[in-house]
Amino acid sequence: MFESAQLGHKVSKAQYKKEVPALREALLAAQVQLFTDQKRPVLLLISGEDGAGKRETTNVLYEWMDPRYLSTLAFEAPSSEELERPAMWRYWRSLPPKGRIGIFAGSWYSDPIRMRITGALSGRELDARAAQINRFEAMLVNEGALVLKFWIHLSKDAQRQRFKELESDPRTAWRVTPGSWERLKTYDKLQEVSSHLLRMTHTAAAPWVVVEGVDECYRSLTVGRVLRAALTQKLADATPAAPGLEPLARLDMDGRNVLSALDLDLTLGEREYKNELGRLQGRLAELARDPRFKTRSLVLAFEGADAAGKGGAIRRIAAALDARQFQVIPVAAPTEEERAQPYLWRFWRHVPRHNHLAIFDRTWYGRVLVERVEGFCAPAEWQRAYGEINDFEHELVEAGAIVVKFWLQISQEEQLRRFKEREQIAFKRFKITDEDWRNREKWNTYQAAVCDMVERTSSGEVPWTLVEANDKQFARIKILRTLCERLEAALQPASVTRDAGEKAAKTSKAARREVKAGRAGKTPKGRSSKA
Q: Whole-prediction pTM value?
């Protein structure tokens, strides 16, 4: 991977001085157009060996371009706050908005390389991280970003010589630390790991450019030329995104699907509701204070038909919790700031730290629901969103988050009744809008989108819980019970979970024997309906 960057590339100072003025002019023109268009962000990753010239390369770009539209994003070892969230959280929060250029000094490649060198990651785990990075970068590019990755390379001898030169000059000696010499000892391991990772993540969407770092003039001109060519090509490319496959029409031949199969006539009496509400709220409060929750977090996702009762259910959950421990995130149409970022950005920024909860009233599923149905995004965008959403939730779970998703379903008749009730009651009137009435006209289209959503994003680790919500009391109790059960299961020690699994397996075998013998009993009514 690095052979061509060890040939002793050089550019004379005369040639450098001759080319720089025109290069600077072209870079500034492209930067102005980028900012004026406000259509795409640019991500520059400057990586490489210590002493290879990463710092100098960044400084040159600041000298050649307008620093008002540049930002340097430096990442070192994760802080305690960052360690309590998915590894990609801190990078998501730092993405440059459309129209700006972000220079990443340290990136999502730094930690996997370091961890593999120290043995904290296995080879298989490194490959898994590479695949995750490829999907992340492909998503950025699909959202319009230009991703350029530079690896500034030095041979082992050249790196040793560079350290000696820096140490010999009092003005630069501070840049060489004992850690620099220690890392030189692991140079060969770094080459093995980094070359493998670069090969795994060199894609058409986000290719690597390896630049020899010995000669300052060659290094700066090469990076500048590549950046100019990439910006010019991207800004001139008016080709629309490649269309996705035509979405398959749903074929529920017998008229049944995951929503129509729900029994919306389920109800709960007032007395039982009050008893269960108090008991489950107390149970939830205890679980939120459980010492085992101090190393976990909870993400609640609420979706449902208009007037299905999401707000009421959220209030019953919040009543059981310490207000300092949770945040309710209402999701509406994206703001100008949010439209300047990939659509998942506004959800990543609210990922909770350990011992905290984030409750989303509407969620990242808007891309495959309202944006799909209303035509706010192209078919190619919402079709690829299923995989991007699954990746997002998987990363949350891998970092210790407990993700619980609810879809609240009501009938068209019940929705109409609630709409009219809202119009008649003064303090509920703000809840009903013209848009709610318009959405009713697309009921069947929305129902088909929900069925697709459930089937493509319900997994063993993050399943959907479908809630029969015609009766608000029944729905609230089912939500609270499901939440408590999910929390308890997640907080169980591994040994207890394993014992429970073995017990369930034995019970299942016994049940099968009963069926064969004709002695199987009836399934109790009222169990949770989970996708």
A: 0.84
